[in-house]
Amino acid sequence: MRIVKFIIVGSAALALAPALSGVPVFAQVDFSGWWANKQHMDNNYSNQQVDFTGIPVNDEGRARALSYNLAAVSVPERQCPVYTPYYTHTGPFGLQIASRADPITQKLVAWEIGGWIDRDPMTIWMDGRPHPTKSAPHPPSGFTTGEWDGDMLIAHTTHFKFGDIKRHRAFSSDNATITYYIVRHDDLLTMMAMLEDAVYLSEPYVMSVPFKQDTNANLFPSLACEPTEELPYLIDNPTIVPHYLPGKNPFVNDLTEKFHIPLEAVMGGPETMYPEFRKRIKDKFTLPPPCTGNYCGGPPAPPAGRGRGSTP
């Protein structure tokens, strides 16, 4: 009797298997762990305050960026900001990702990306909850929901504050949204972000950054942020708000003078994102002198006595 029952149950399971094979299986990819930023993309470092190349700023976004004075981050109340979720792409830090499961069903509720000293923790809700209303509060990390497209996680972020797009150059408004596309290949994690902002951008701004799993990574913040007296003139004159009036930014011509990059490229805009723009400005560009200082893109000079052909 037991043998017959086993055969019946086993046959039913085999009959059901083809039907289940067409049902999508969700959350097959595990993103949890420590991920080190490989910084293979030219996305954040620059010595020039006015450099909007490749950023699709509109007139409003360009005017807002040109009014920005970097001394603003030295004002005591602005020394410890918490950046927007786009900082995952423009910042130098890695990611600490953990999963949150329902304690009863063990279904995935959310992915949690840990915060840093200047980055708010980010939660990607996977339980189908709706986004808040338009007038809801805007925390620095915003509100994010996620969904699976095969093995790719697509996350939608809204309700985050005004913030940087590129290291204190160009900004997004508090009406902006971000769509993330997150894919894992073994020990590599690729995160692409599409920032859309009708206030400051003419087109979506897309960036991609690779991370590599690192079990030895130390991603914890080293210390809490504490304001200090960075610029004495701001301490002595607390009513000063660092800024530049229209047409008064002194750094507008830095890239043109140092690297011969035409001003129309420096000022950014959607056309500067595409390779065809190079043809448009090629007759206006001449090669600058060879780079001899830091940030030239080459390997560091060998120590004295350790050049090519030398012996230890």
Structure, described:
By secondary structure, the chain is an alpha+beta fold. It is built from seven helices and eleven strands. It has helices at 2-21, 59-66, 87-90, 232-236, 254-259, 263-266, 276-281, and strands spanning 33-37, 95-101, 108-113, 122-125, 143-149, 152-158, 163-166, 169-172, 177-185, 188-196, 205-213. Strands 1-2-3-4-5-6-9-10-11 form a nine-stranded mixed beta barrel. Strands 7-8 form a two-stranded antiparallel ribbon. β3 and β4 (122-125) form a beta hairpin.
Q: Which of globular, elongated, flat, extended, rod-shaped describes the shape?
A: globular
SSE pattern: HEHHEEEEEEEEEEHHHH
Mean pLDDT: 83
Structural class: alpha+beta
Task: Output the keywords.
312 residues, alpha+beta, two-stranded antiparallel ribbon, 17% helix, disordered N terminus
